[in-house]
Input
Amino acid sequence: MAMSKKMFDQINRNRQVRAHLMQVARAKAARAQAITNAEGGEARITVKSGIRPGGRAYVNIVSDSPIEEYGSESTPRIRALGRAIREA
Output
C-alpha cells in the first residue's frame, strides 16, 4: 500500500520523529567534534534542521572548515564528519 502525501507530511512533521533525527545528529556531531579536537583541528561542528520543500524532514551536520574535512596541500585531511558518520 502506498503512503499518501498527507500521511508522509504528518510523519515528517511529527515532533517525535524530528526529535529522534536531532538526537542522532547531535550524537554524530559530538563525535565529529571530538575527532576534530583530537586530531588538532579547529573546525566547529554544528547541526541544522528543517523541512525540505518536498516535505521531508532533514538534519545536516556541518563543519565550518571544509579544508579540514577534505584536506589541501598545506592542511592534512581530518575527515571528522565522514569518520563520525561511519562509526556505529
In short: The two ends are 32 Å apart (CA to CA). Residues 8 and 55 are 8 Å apart (CA to CA). The chain is about 50% helix and 15% strand.
